[in-house]
Design goal:
Blueprint: E1 3-6, E2 14-17, E3 20-23, E4 31-34, H1 38-47, H2 51-57, H3 61-67, E5 85-89, H4 97-103, E6 106-111, H5 114-123, E7 130-134, E8 146-152, H6 158-161, H7 167-176, E9 179-188, H8 195-198, H9 228-236
Parallel strand pairs: 3-7, 5-6, 5-8, 6-7, 8-9
Antiparallel strand pairs: 1-4, 2-3
Helix pairs in contact: 1-5
């Protein structure tokens, strides 16, 4: 389960890291989600250009999760052109950001964690078409409309950073408002009914067995993972067409 830690002090509000613009002018968040102190090591590695070396030598899960290029496959099927603009919501440490930048025209990435945003900027420092905005999407304002908006491992956390009566609905409405007519909203999310959970694995976010399968009967404020039948009604009220893409394996 992810931990919270305080925002680092003394950071410039707008700065260049390589060719990337890192913009924290609209950041009003006090805390952000984190894998803990190991993220300081991840930042040191990307600043030194050693992320590939760290990935080969370090077996800790956060290193694999944040640095493995295999995560880019989640968007390999998505058609993108250099004429299209993309809003990546929740870019994390930039695991798929570079793959988007190489295929799209302009990319605005949003990340609530200043440390993760900085890791993403260093990791993709050669991407001149990338601006990373630090903050909660609900506190940000964009004048641009986008051909594609992505939520990669983000929607399940909406209830923890959108403090309304219907956080998932309201967060998706915010995402949809940034789409151009005919634009595409891409959501990648874990399967609440995944085989590992039926086999007794602990739910990734709550740490309890069968929690998601039983629709989180113990309650509490935590990430909420959808199953397909619950996800479509949440999205379908704004989308003219929806399709499910399943990764194999």
């Amino acid at each position: 389960m992810k931990k919270k830690h305080s925002k680092p002090a003394g950071q410039a509000k707008v700065r260049r890291i390589g060719k990337v613009l890192l913009d924290a002018t609209q950041d009003r968040s006090r805390d952000q989600y984190s894998d803990g102190d190991i993220e300081a090591e991840l930042l040191a590695a990307v600043r030194a250009g050693r992320q590939d070396e760290m990935l080969r030598q370090d077996t800790r899960w956060p290193v694999l999760y944040h640095f493995s290029e295999e995560r880019q496959n989640v968007l390999s099927w998505l058609p993108l052109t250099k004429e299209e603009d993309v809003l990546e919501i929740g870019c994390g440490c930039g695991a798929v950001t570079g793959a988007i930048c190489r295929r799209a025209g302009h990319v605005d990435a949003v990340e609530i964690s200043p440390r993760r945003a900085e890791i993403a900027a260093w990791r993709n420092k050669d991407c001149a078409n990338l601006v990373i905005h630090v903050g909660n999407l609900n506190d940000l304002a964009f004048e641009r409309k986008y051909d594609v908006v992505t939520l990669i491992g983000v929607l399940e956390y909406a209830g923890t950073f959108t403090h309304t009566a219907d956080p998932y609905h309201d967060f998706l409405a915010q995402c949809q408002s940034y789409l151009k007519p005919g634009g595409r909203l891409v959501i990648a999310i874990e399967n609440r009914l995944g085989m590992k959970y039926w086999s007794g694995a602990h739910e990734d976010h709550t740490g309890r067995r069968f929690d998601g399968i039983l629709d989180y009967p113990w309650g509490g404020r935590h990430p909420y993972v959808f199953a397909e039948r619950a996800l479509w009604p949440a999205c379908g009220r704004w989308l003219s067409h929806a399709a499910m893409v399943l990764p194999i394996p």
